[in-house]
Automatic annotation (TrEMBL):
<feature type="transmembrane region" description="Helical">
    <location>
        <begin position="100"/>
        <end position="118"/>
    </location>
</feature>
<feature type="transmembrane region" description="Helical">
    <location>
        <begin position="218"/>
        <end position="242"/>
    </location>
</feature>
<feature type="transmembrane region" description="Helical">
    <location>
        <begin position="184"/>
        <end position="206"/>
    </location>
</feature>
<feature type="transmembrane region" description="Helical">
    <location>
        <begin position="67"/>
        <end position="88"/>
    </location>
</feature>
<keyword id="KW-1133">Transmembrane helix</keyword>
<keyword id="KW-0812">Transmembrane</keyword>
<protein>
    <recommendedName>
        <fullName>NADH-ubiquinone oxidoreductase</fullName>
    </recommendedName>
</protein>
<feature type="transmembrane region" description="Helical">
    <location>
        <begin position="254"/>
        <end position="275"/>
    </location>
</feature>
<keyword id="KW-0472">Membrane</keyword>
<feature type="transmembrane region" description="Helical">
    <location>
        <begin position="148"/>
        <end position="172"/>
    </location>
</feature>
């Protein structure tokens, strides 16, 4: 069905929602997050009070469901391991035991970050019409910085890799204060900054511009909970700086509790993400 008019909503230079006026008087709406997470295009016929969500083809739906399950499971387990590591550091074995737990959690974060990026890389193509989004050829990588979903997930994945440097450094023994801050604390700070940037881009994507509150939107809740976790991780990193004059962190309790709280946020976001998946059916009815 051909289009006769198009309206674009943007977050800075990024398009987050497109609305087409169809030849029969109805509308078709493409939104960035629902398209890449659930393979959806919303269509409303003229005079109808409800919208029909057109789901992508079976190939795309199968891919998105598998990637969503991997990402959700990885962040759920990774966040839980980070929480256990923070608890061990606060109440029991600080040192190598908690460091190895953190390292294991970091591997799950790497997996979740890459699975999230693959969702953006393999998101169904948007179409100027009322047909369902079309499958792309499977890709393990792409370079699309002009898409806000790609940029957000790419920055997130890079953040998980930088955290890996921090976690590897924490396994080393006999580090001086300068080495501790350079190999452990500095990558931790960079990773936290990248997580915050990724979360901000995700908020812009789901809110179509200026960040706001959308309590009826599951995607918004996932992004908001994860962004809270990123803020807590940043507080933890700031408190973990080792002061050269004393050779001790700024505040061990804040560092451990911040990590614990941030980890639980990401674990909760992972659980919520299990429900943000494509449906098995091809059409659904949605109320506006």
């Amino acid at each position: 069905m051909s289009q006769t008019e198009e309206r674009s909503e943007r977050a800075g230079p990024f398009t987050t929602r497109l609305t087409w006026r169809l030849a029969d008087g109805g509308t078709a709406v493409w939104e960035s997050r629902p398209a890449r997470k659930r393979g959806l295009l919303t269509v409303r016929a003229e005079g109808e009070p409800e919208s029909r969500a057109r789901t992508a083809d079976r190939v795309s739906v199968g891919r998105l469901r598998r990637l969503n399950a991997i990402a959700a499971g990885a962040f759920t387990v990774g966040g839980a391991l980070f929480a256990v590591g923070a608890g061990a550091a606060q109440f029991g074995s600080a040192g190598r035991t908690s460091a190895w737990i953190y390292f294991a959690g970091g591997l799950f974060f790497n997996t979740g970050g890459y699975a999230s990026l693959l969702q953006a890389v393999n998101a169904p193509d948007r179409d100027a019409g009322s047909g369902p989004p079309a499958a792309r050829r499977w890709r393990w990588w792409s370079y699309e910085p002009g898409r806000i979903d790609w940029l957000s997930t790419f920055v997130l994945f890079v953040g998980t890799l930088v955290f890996g440097i921090n976690l590897l450094g924490s396994l080393l023994q006999g580090l001086s204060v300068q080495q501790e801050n350079r190999l452990v604390w500095a990558p931790d700070m960079v990773g936290c900054i990248l997580f915050l940037i990724s979360g901000h881009l995700a908020l812009l994507e789901v809110c179509h511009g200026r960040p706001g509150v959308r309590p009826r939107d599951l995607g918004w809740w996932i992004v908001a909970v994860n962004q809270l976790g990123s803020v807590l991780f940043m507080l933890s990193a700031l408190a973990a700086f080792t002061r050269p004059a004393t050779g001790s962190p700024v505040n061990v309790d804040v560092a451990n509790w911040g990590t614990l709280g941030g980890a639980l946020c990401f674990s909760a976001g992972g659980v919520l993400q299990f429900f943000e998946r494509p449906s098995a059916g091809n059409d659904q009815m949605e109320t506006p």
